[in-house]
Amino acid sequence: MQSTTTRHVRTLLTLSVVVRLAFWTLVFISAYLLPLFDASPGIWISGTPPSSVLLRWDAFHFAHIAREGYVYEHEWAFFNGLPLLMRISAHLQALTGFGSNDWATLLRGGAGMAILCDSTHVLYHLSLHHFRSPSLAFLSTALSVFSSSPAALKMAPYNEPFFTYLSYRGMLACARSKWAAASVCFALASIFRSNGIFLSGFILWGMLVAPFLSGQKDLLTPRYLLKCVLLTALPLIPFIQHNIIAYLRFCKPSATRIPDWCTSNMIPSIYSHVQSKYWNIGFLHYWTVSNIPNFMFALPALLHVFAFCWFYLSNLPAIIPHIAPRICSKNNDVPPPPQLDSPFLSPSLLPHVLHALALTSILTFNAHVQISLRLLPSLPLTYWAAARLMLDLPKWGKAWVTWSVLWAALSCVLWAVFLPPA
Length: 422
Description:
The protein is mainly alpha-helical. Helices cover about 65% and strands about 0% of the residues. The mean pLDDT is about 90.
């Protein structure tokens, strides 16, 4: 088992490096041969790749925050995790004589750190824990190398590589009942993306819900519950801190002009304010005729996750006896539940299914739907669902792999020429 695992991890890391190099090559060739749809990167960085090809979409905001701090109100939609890493990397490059605090140095630093956050081996070990099958863990992880947004996930100074890596780390710690480590990982993930607050649900499920359902109520002592509350609350701190800092800066009584968001809500939040004002975030706000192309871009990824959630939850009556045997039994003698038909119905996947369903629903109804292409790869369930298609529904599995490869290549070209989605 150990030798198989080592061999698998080594093969997967090699595959990840090869595919990453292929994506880099495609982006560079496209940036060199094709004209930019938006020439603004050339204003900030002169010359050709590699530095200028990193400056696309949200990278503008991250680099500006890293260099100047939060200058404009709309920049508060972005958390400070990546800008902080970019500043640290730029400082280290300056110490070695390879750069200064300019845009190119900041972008190179962010991209370099993103490359270090390769989540391939973490996903393999997480999959191995849930499926107890090296071959199934290998298949799931191999399918992850062709993500739906390779430029943002594998080469650019974006939040997603860090968020995905730390999310997987925290999920693996939860699977191993290392709750403190999981809480720290989820808190670090929350420094990069606001949806990190939902990761607390894995701790709440593992420490509170699962023991309660399995009849281990003797574990739920006051001290244990307090520990559960503290560890669940830790990943919420970055989001709360981000809003408190903005409140203290803009909402002082001595300010000449107090923004409306300081007083318009019971709990003032600059994050909610800028998301609504500058990105028009809200329930069904994005459901317009002009956004149909963005829904078409995201549809395969969204349907892919929704389909797996439906498959799992439709089999919940057969799964529940494995999660809550005493609740399902009317007497004290609890017979062993019947064997489940599929490894993809493992009871340990239930919190992942609930988390994926919640996130995918938010992306569909309450967000810019095209960011699903960047956020859904942060769900291990995306690749477990792909592995299920390959094994149980081979035609659909081949269709998924074909779409993944073709879309990954096309998205690299779109990134290079500064075209959506991103």
